[in-house]
Each structure stands twice: as structure tokens, then as C-alpha cells.
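To assess whether ligand presence alters the predicted conformation, the chain was also submitted together with 2-oxoglutaric acid. Input:
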Amino acid sequence: MIDMVAGSGGRGDTCASEAAGGEDNSAALAAVVDTDRYPLHDSGDPGRTAVVARARTELAAEGCTVLPGFIRAELLETLRAEGDALAPRAYYTVERVNAYNIPLDTELPPEHPARIVLERGNAFVARDLIPSDALIQVLYTSPLFQRFVADCFGLAELHEFSDPLAGLCLNVVAPGNSHPWHFDTNAFTVSMLTQEPEGGGVFEYCPNIRTPRAENLADVRAVLTDAGERFVRRLRLRPGDLQLFQGRFSLHRVSPVTGDTQRHTAIFAYSERPGIIGTVERTRQLFGRVLTDHLAAADNAVRGDRLLD
Ligand SMILES: O=C(O)CCC(=O)C(=O)O
Ligand SMILES: [Fe+2]
């Protein structure tokens, strides 16, 4: 999600298999996920192998894959209603940003696409406000879900954030707002629409418009100035679909939301490294508050050790 992964504070306490206290919560997970389509609980199931293989192929080609109908159809209204009940608790900010999330006063030539200023109307409900029995929290903490996501991305390890706010968020985009064009700092993102807007709010992306070796500034500029339609793909996401995305090379946005209904997305933040926690400054910007964990992590980062004072 955005550029939430700002720092690492030590305290690497989660690991995929321990994340739910080592418990096997496969029954809880099977109650949430459509296990006929997505048999996560059985690593030897040919259906699971096929789903993982398709996800890997699509991620390699496009940096994006959607697993439709991931959540059981009979739970879609619960998924929506849980998010809708949380949405008023979102911290709302409007930020002036550019597609690279670098400071707006960075010295750059006039034609550089980072000089195009965009407005992001952001609202996140932080993890500590999301009940532990909410469907998105059950998914986020499930070792089977984590193993499945890691397999789809081809990662040996996957860890929950140690950050008590940023690990799991509900992203609220209200009518009139958008999440403008950007590249992610994170290598990969896992998300799920929980409530569709009436209009707009479409996930649009430009697969691999830049590469590790080339920024392709002219192409990025074309998209930002509405002259790059040839690069743009649009996803028809439905609530309960699981989206896996590599946003570091694929410029993407959520188009402006129209109508009366907010767009809600659960963002599941994981990392290959344990112990990820946001900086004090970024956490305050995104959530309007910080917790002792953020302050302690900043202290550790400054001292470079975890010895007592
Ligand atoms: O809400 C979405 O669907 C996309 C969000 C996104 O691009 C991000 O959080 O970086
Ligand atoms: Fe993004």
C-alpha cells in the first residue's frame, strides 16, 4: 500500500507460521474462503497448484493477477457491512503528491513527470481499529493464506508487518476523490475490494511501464497528461476478489469515485523481512497518531542496538 513501508524497527516477532500464535486456523479460513475454487488448506491439492501456477504466470507477464470469488458468496454482504461500519473511523487527509512519492520540491527538469502534482484524498482505517474476528483480519493473520500468497508471488517467506497500524488497513475512497497515478514503494501488494462505488473507482494500471533499468519518463508523462491510453489496462474488480499486484514497475491509480457510495478496499501488507514498522513521521501523516511501538522503533533505529538505556 502506498509507501507505508518506511522503516524497520527490529522487533521482528512475526513469522508466517507463528503469526496466529502457531494455531492452525484452517477451519476459520475455510469458513471464509471459497475452498472449492481455492483449496488453500491442502498444499498437495492439484487445484491449489493450478491456481498458484496461473497467478505466477500472470504476475510474470503483467505484474497483476485477480482471483475472482475468493470469499464465499454468502459472506459478501458481511464483508461489505464490516467495512462500512469501520469506514467512519478512517483518518482523512488530502495530500499533494507526485507519481513517484518523492518530495515536490525535488530539483528536476521542467518536463520530468515527477513535477506533475496530483491530489490524493486518502482515508485509512488502521489495523488496531479492525476487530480480530472481522473477515479481513481472519484472512490477514491466517498462516495458510500467507503461505498461499507467498507461493503466488514465488517468495520463500512472508511476514505480517510488526506495525500495529499499517499491517492491515481499510482504504476508503469517498465520492469525488481518487487515488491518483503512482508507483508503489512496496514490491508487492495484496488487496480486496469490500465495497464497490456506484461509479468510477476503477483500478487502472500500465503493466511494466518502467523497468529496473529504465524509467521511461516519456511514457509515464503521457499517462499523467491523459495522452497514454495505449498503456492503460482496466480491471473489473468485484467485492471478494483477491488482487495480487506488483506496483513498483506498473504505474496505477484508482479513478475518481462518483455517485453516493464510498469505495472500500482491504489492504493486506506483508513483507519478505520480519519487523517492518513505519516511521513516526509517515505514520502520523497517514493515521494522525503514533503508538509506542513506532517511537520505540525510531529509538532502536537511532541507537542501532536494543540495549537498555
Ligand atoms: O485501493 C486500491 O485498489 C489500490 C490502492 C493502491 O494502489 C495503494 O494502496 O498503493
Ligand atoms: Fe498503489
